[in-house]
Amino acid sequence: MQRETRVVLLVLLLAGGALYLHTTTTTEEFSRHNIGWNGTSSLPAEEVRDLSRLDPGSTLLVLAPDRPFTPEEVGYLRAFLDGGGRVIIADEEGAANPLLADLGSEIRVRPGNLSSLERDYAHPGLFRGYVVGNDTLFAGVETVLLNRPAEVEGGEPLIETSVLTWDDVDADGRVGEGETFGRSVVCAREGNLIVLGDTSLFINAMLPENPKFIENLQPVQIDAVHSRTGSRNPIINTLAWIAERPLAVAAMAALIILPVAWRFGRKRE
Amino acid sequence: MIPRTSHIILVAAAVLLTLLLAGEAVDPVLYAAENISTAAHADPSTIEKRSPGDAASVIPLMDELLGHTGTLALTIKIKDYESAQRDLARYSELTSQFDRLVVTLDLSETDIAEFQKNNRQNQEAMAALLNDSQRLDELQSLEIEVLDGDQRMAVVYEGEALRQKMRETYTAYAKREPETTRIATHYGANATPYQESVEVIAEVAGAAEDWQADAPRSPLNISVTPREGRYGENLSIGGRYADGVPGTPLTIYVDSRIAGNTTLDENAAYAYPYRIGRILAGPHLVYATAGAIFSEVATFDVLPAETNISLAIAEVNRTAVACTGNLTTEDGRPVQEAPVLLRLDGETLISTQTDGNGTYARTLILTGGEHTVRAEFNAAGYPLNSSRSGVVSIQVRGEGLSPFPFIAAIAAALGAGWYIRRRGLPPEPPVPEEPDIEPPPEIAETGPSVEIEGLPPRDAATILFRALRERLGIPATKTPRECARLAPDHAAFFERYERIRYAGETPTDEELRAMEREALGRAD
Amino acid sequence: MAGAKKYHAAAVLAVWLLIVTFFMILNRTLDLEVFFVLSLIGLLVVAVLIDGAFSRPRYMRYLGYVIIVEVAIFAYIVAEKILEIIAA
Q1: Does B426 sit within 8 Å of C64, measured CB to CB?
Q2: pLDDT of B425 higher than 60
Q3: Where are any strands of DSSP class E within B188-347?
Q4: B141 contacts chain A (CB < 8 A)
C-alpha cells in the first residue's frame, strides 16, 4: 500500500505542477506572464499603473500600446518628459500615433512589411539595423537585430536599416513592381522621447540577441495600463491583484495557517 | 487467466493507443518548433541562419565597376593599349559577376537592374572606343607612309568612319551618365570616377576629331530605314557606291561586328535586310566596307519591348515533371534561342533555352512533395524587358513505397525470433496446451523403495517428490506446480510439496508417511 | 506483493518514457520515431535485467512477442532512413 500511495502522490504532484503552470501562464503576445518565446516574462522591469506618480529622471517604456491615453495622462507624460524623465514608445502598428500627436511630437510610426536583402537569417523580416545617432540607450551598440520593424518618420534618426531594404507590400519576399530599395529609419528621438518601431526587441526570444541594448535600458518601468504586457486571463489577474495588496496577502496567509494551527495546536485532551 | 476488469481496460487502452499512433506513423514528426512566427515577429531561434554573402557584395561591386570605367578611360586617353586591354578583360569579368548576382538575388525589377543594363552598354562602349582608338592610331601612322592616291583615300574614309563612330559612342555614353550616377549615389556607391571618365572620353573623341578636321565624304554612303525598330523587326541597310562596280562584295558592320555580306547591284546600289536580334536596346552604329573603302557611319535606335513568358507543368512519371512554355514579345513575336531560367522552390536555378518558335521544354527530376516552379527571362543582351511567369506549384508523388524496409523488417523479426528462442526467453506456446504434446505419463504399479530414514523432514519430502515424479513418468525438469497440472490425481501432494519447498513449511511425521505412501504408490 | 518485480519493471519503463517525453517537450520537437526507438531501448534493457535464469514467468513469455514486433518496426524505420540518406 505504501508504495502505491507514493506513486499516486508523485503523479498528483506532477499533475499539480502542470496545472499550476497552465493557470498562471498565458500565451498572449508581449504578456509578462507568458514564458514562451513571444512573452516578456524575462524582461527585467517594474510595472507602474499610475502615471501621476512616476519618479522624475527614470525611464518609462510604453510597449505596444493598445489603449488610448486620456488628456490627463498625456499631461502627466508631458510633465515627466519636461522633468528629465525618458519615455520610450515601442510600437509596430501605428497605435501610438494619436499619443505622439497629443504629445506635440512630429514623429509618426508607419506600419509596413520592411524586408531586407542583407540579412543573416532565412526570414526576410529578421535583419540588423545600424545605430547612426548618439544616445545613451545605444552606447556601445553598433547593430540591433530587428524583427519585422515598422518605419518611423520624423525626429532625429537613431537606427537606420541598410540600403537594400524595401517595404514588401505584396509579401512575396522579393522586390516586385512598385517596390524600391532604400534606407529606412526605425528609431527616432525628439528630446527625451524615443520612438522605436520594433516592439519585438523585448520578447524573451530576442533578449539574448541584443544584450547590450537591454543592459543600457536598465532600470526601466513599464506602463502596465497602456502596454500590452497584461493578460486577459482572470485567474492571473486575480493573483496579481492579490499579490499587490499586502493586506490581501496577509489575509490569505491567515486563511491557510490558522486552521492548520488550530488542528494541530489544540491541547490533547 | 481470469479476465479482470483492469486487464480488459488495459488491453483496450493499449489497442486504442496503438491505432492512434499508427495513424500518425505516416508523418512521424508530430510537432516541431519550425519557423514559428506571428504577425509582429518571428522566433529567431527557430529560423535558420544563412550567410548574407551575396547581398553584401552588390554595392562594393557597383563601386568597382564604376571605378573601372575611370581607369579605362584614362588608359585609353594616354594610349597605353596593353594595360587597357587587361583592364577591359577585368571589367568584363566583373560585369558578368554582377549579371549573375542580379539573377541569383532576383533583382530584375529594381533599379539595380537598370544600372546593370547601363553598365553592360558602358562596357561595350569602352571596348569599341579602345579598338577604334587603337585603329585610329594605326591609320595615323599609315597615312604618313602611304603615298598612293587610292590607298590614301581608303585611309581617309576609314578614319572618317572611326571618328564618327567614336563621336556617336561618346554621345550615347554621356547620355547614360545622369541616370547611372543617380542610381549609384542612391546606393552609396562612389560615382566620381565614372563622372570623370565621361570628360576623359570627351577628350578622346575630341582628339579624334582634331586629326581630320575636313575630310571629304566617302563615296560609299549608307542609311538605315526605318531609323528605329524593336526586336524581331527588319531594318533595311542600304545606300549607293558612287564609283562602284556592280558585283563588288560589301561587308556590313553593326557595332564593329560583321552583320552580313551583300553585293552591289547594276545601279551600284545595295540593300541588306537586317533583323534585330540579340543586341542591346539603345543607339547602334552601322557602316559598310567595300574592299578597303569605308562608308560613313549611320545610326539606328533599338527600342525596348515587353515580353511575356508562360509556364505549364505536366507530370511525366512519379518523380519527373515536364515544364514547357512560350516566350513572346508583346506583339506576339517569338523570342528565339533565348535563355530561360526555371526557379525551383525559390532557390535553385535551372537554365534552358527556347527553340525557333520561342518554346522551351525541360524535364525536371524532383523529390516527392510540394514544389514551386517559376520561369524567368532575364533579357540580358536583348532589347527586351525581363519577364517572369506566375508561380506554379506541383505535388510530386515521389517514389512509391520501396520494398526494402519491409524486407528489412521481416528479416529483423525472424532474426529476433530465432535469437530469443535460442536464448530461452522463448515465445513458446503457453503451458495449458502442453497436455496435447506430452505423451500421457506412465503410471507404474509400485515404485522402488526409497530411503528416507534419518533425513531432515524437508529433504525427505524432496526425495519423495522426486520419486513420485519419476514414478509418474513426468520429466525431471517439471516444477511441482506443473506436475500438479499434469497429474491432477496427485495435485494435493504436489501442492503440499510446493509449500514445503518454497514457502518453508515443515511437514509433520504423519504427513511424511502419507507422502511416502503416495510417492511409492502403495495403496493404504 | 505478488509479482513485485513485474511492477518494478513497469514503473522503471514508465519513468524512462516520462524522462524522454520531458526532454522532447523541452526541445520543442515531438518526433514519434525517436520516441519509439528510445522506448524500444528501454524495453530491451528492462527485459534483460528482469530475466531470471531459472524461471519463465508469464509476463516474460509475452514480452518475447512484443520485442519481436518492436524490433521489426525498428528495422523498418532504420531501412527507411537509410533510403532517405542514399537518395539525398
Answers
A1: yes
A2: no
A3: 223-225, 228-229, 234-240, 249-254, 257-263, 269-275, 282-290, 293-294, 298-302, 307-309, 312-315, 320-329, 339-344
A4: no
Note the pLDDT tens digit of each residue in A37-93: 888 888 888 888 888 888 888 899 999 888 888 999 999 999 999 888 899 999 988
**Structural domain containing residue C75:** 4-87
Contacts of A64 in chain B (CB under 8 A): 40
Across the interface, whether the CB atoms of B32 and C30 are under 8 A apart is answered: yes
The DSSP secondary-structure symbol of B274 reads: E
CB–CB contacts below 8 A, B to C: 83
Q: Which of A45, A43, A29 is nearest to A223 (CA)?
A: A45
CB contact under 8 A, B43 and A148: no
Please tell me which chains touch A, using 3 or more CB pairs under 8 Å as the contact test: B
Whether residues B45 and A37 touch (CB distance < 8 A) is answered with: yes
Residues A219-241: tens digit of each pLDDT:
889 988 888 888 888 888 888 88
Please indicate if any CB of chain C lies within 8 Å of the CB of B439.
Answer: no
Q: What domains are there in chain B, each with its CATH number?
A: 55-215 (no CATH), 217-303 (2.60.40.10), 307-396 (2.60.40.10), 435-520 (no CATH)
Measured CA to CA, the distance from residue A189 to residue A134 in angstroms comes to 10
Best CA proximity match to B440, nearest among B471, B470, B465, B472: B472
Q: Count Cβ atoms below 10 Å from residue B218 Cβ, excluding itself.
A: 26
* Closest among B210, B208, B217 to B296, alpha carbons compared: B217
Contact B31 C78 (CB under 8 A): no
Average pLDDT of the residues of chain A:
87
Interface of C with B (CB under 8 A): 28-33, 47, 51, 56, 58, 60-65, 67-69, 71-80, 83, 87
**Binary contact (C75, B29; C-beta < 8 A):** no
Sequence ranges of the domains in chain A: 46-223, 233-269
Residue range B170-214, pLDDT digits in tens: 989 999 999 999 999 998 888 999 999 999 999 888 877 776 656
**Rounded distance between C-alpha atoms, residue B208 and residue B299, angstroms:** 19
Q: How far apart are CA C64 and CA C71, in angstroms?
A: 11
Which residues of chain A are within 8 Å of residue B45 when distances are taken between CB atoms? 37, 205
Neighbours of chain C (3+ CB pairs under 8 A): B
Architecture of domain A46-223: 3-Layer(aba) Sandwich (3.40)
Distance from CA of B390 to the nearest CA of A (A): 12
Task: Give pLDDT tens digits for A106-158.
Answer: 999 999 888 888 888 888 888 899 999 888 888 888 999 998 899 999 889 99
The structural domain count of chain C equals: 1
Identify the closest residue of chain B to C66 by CA–CA distance.
Answer: B427
The DSSP element (H or E) to which B239 belongs, if any, is strand B234-240
Per-state percent for chain B, helix, strand, coil, to nearest 5: 45, 20, 30
Q: Which of A174, A120, A173, A122 is nearest to B113 (CA)?
A: A174
Q: What is the three-state SS of A146-159?
A: EECCCEEECCEEEE
Nearest CA to B299 among B136, B423, B204, B175?
B175
- Mean per-residue pLDDT over chain C, rounded: 85
Task: Tell me if A147 sits within 8 A of A198, measured CB to CB.
Answer: yes
Count Cα neighbours of B64 within 13 Å in the Cβ-side half-sphere.
16
pTM value is: 0.71
* ipTM reported for the complex, 2 dp: 0.78
Burial of B441 (0-12, 13-18, 19+ CB in 10 A): middle
